[in-house]
Design goal:
The protein contains five helices and six strands. The chain is an alpha+beta fold. It has one domain (40-205). Strands 1-2-3-4-5-6 form a six-stranded mixed sheet. Strand 4 (163-167) and strand 5 form a beta hairpin. It is globular, with a radius of gyration of 16 Å.
């Protein structure tokens, strides 16, 4: 049987895996996304960034690039411009996003938190990124899937680092360290064309979410 997707241009490696559960009750996420205090202009500007990346997927451009070629732009535009995580070169006293910071001999693609110069970095989330053709649950690097890598990072961080984010650019997942690998929130890049779906993504992944 062909696995049909809601969006015709949605990649098979972007889809949620069967027999997995939501991390957060749907009604709670929906209520948060409908909060009237959300800045409408900020939402629209952030949505435009994700629409740009969705168009890049649809055009086939993303499929021509690997993880290394797009990682910096993806982190800066999606996590920086859209989701509010300033980088170390943005000129702020406190920044929230840093690439390739070592953790117990491992090097995640990025960490998120509140970082200051000359202070130990204490991440609140780790990020593992893969290219848009990589299956997050099947394809392996050094014997580990992207999800496995993320969980290895989490277990080597202090308890304050609760969150793991795994993305292959065409999809996003959010994990919580006290839960399991089979329970996560999930969005595809194409699903974020829908503004209501995007608002749920925004309140979940934004720095102030």
């Amino acid at each position: 049987m062909v696995n049909k997707t809601l969006f015709p241009s949605e990649s098979p490696v972007a889809q949620r895996q069967p027999k997995t559960d939501r991390l957060i009750l749907a009604r709670f996420l929906k209520d948060a996304a409908e909060d009237k205090r959300l800045d409408e202009n900020g939402l629209k500007a952030a949505h435009a960034v994700l629409l740009k990346w969705a168009d890049l997927e649809t055009s086939g451009r993303l499929g021509e690039l690997n993880e290394s070629q797009m990682q910096g732009d993806f982190l800066a535009q999606v996590f920086g411009d859209a989701l509010g995580y300033a980088g170390p070169l943005d000129g702020k006293e406190v920044w929230h996003r840093e690439q390739h910071h070592p953790i117990a001999g491992e090097t995640p693609d990025a960490i998120l938190g509140f970082f200051r110069q000359s202070e130990d970095h204490k991440p609140l989330a780790v990020v593992e990124l893969k290219g848009p053709k990589v299956h997050l649950d099947r394809d392996r690097s050094n014997g580990r899937t992207a999800v496995g890598q993320c969980w290895d990072y989490l277990v080597n961080t202090p308890p304050e680092c609760r969150w793991g984010i795994v993305s292959n650019v065409v999809s996003f997942r959010l994990y919580e360290r006290n839960s399991t690998k089979r329970k996560y929130e999930h969005f595809t890049l194409q699903s974020l064309r829908d503004f209501d779906a995007f608002k749920q993504f925004y309140v979940l992944f934004h720095r102030r979410g």
